[in-house]
Design brief:
Layout: E1 3-9, E2 16-27, E3 30-38, E4 44-53, E5 58-65, E6 68-73, E7 78-83, E8 90-95, E9 99-101, H1 106-115, E10 124-132, E11 137-153, E12 160-169, E13 175-181, E14 184-188, E15 191-196
Parallel strand pairs: 9-10
Antiparallel strand pairs: 1-2, 1-15, 2-3, 3-4, 4-5, 5-6, 6-7, 7-8, 10-11, 11-12, 12-13, 13-14, 14-15
Organism: Streptomyces hyderabadensis
Protein name: Glycolipid-binding domain-containing protein
């Protein structure tokens, strides 16, 4: 069960945004990721609880940020309920999308579990509902993902398989690279892995 800490920053000006303390693991029904976020000053900032089924679909998502809350799952595309900080108003949403995305590294791993790309494949298009900080506002985005390279790196615990993905935002054409080993993001725009207590999980 990998445990560790990511630092999150603005990918454009590198302003520190939060630290995400996480643990994740595959299980009999799929994969689960839980984390808590703190601000650079140490204040509580939010939490993530994401569970995927064996096909990589989100069967449960619970996000908290700045007293906002979103609960969602893959139902008729993806469906969610967003609650305001007072807890009085809740709005439901639905989109013909494959999964959710957001600032947490969990969502990058989740897309790779959904797409199951191989290095020989061309880019695959995916529609996602982005839940953006600080108020978890939902927005539908289209991306394409391609697995550019898969390399084995020698470690004390045996070979570590690192996948290099190219992600393209289809509305702007902007591209970036994501490096993932198992269920841990090693590097991505706005994300740095600062600490990892145990090796990444190996998926079958």
């Amino acid at each position: 069960m990998p445990r560790g800490r990511y630092s999150l920053h603005d990918p454009h000006d590198h302003t520190p945004l939060a630290e995400e303390h996480f643990q994740c693991a595959p299980g009999p029904s799929g994969w689960r990721y839980v984390s808590r976020l703190t601000t650079p000053t140490g204040a509580q900032h939010g939490s993530v609880d994401l569970a995927l089924d064996e096909l990589g679909r989100p069967i449960r998502l619970e996000l908290h940020a700045a007293d906002w809350q979103v609960r969602g799952a893959a139902i008729d595309g993806v469906t969610w309920v967003r609650t305001d900080p007072t807890g009085v108003h809740a709005t439901e949403g639905n989109a013909r999308a494959h999964a959710f995305t957001g600032t947490s590294p969990a969502f990058l791993v989740a897309v790779t579990r959904l797409l199951r790309l191989t290095p020989s494949e061309s880019a695959t298009r995916v529609r996602l509902v982005a839940l953006t900080d600080p108020v978890l506002a939902p927005r539908t985005v289209d991306q394409s993902w391609a697995l550019l390279n898969r390399e084995a790196h020698a470690t004390d615990n045996g070979p570590l398989i690192v996948d290099e993905y190219q992600v393209t935002a289809l509305d702007t054409g902007e591209q970036h690279t994501v490096h993932i080993a198992g269920d841990v993001v090693l590097a991505a725009p706005g994300i740095e892995l600062e600490d990892l207590e145990t090796p990444p999980s190996v998926f079958p």
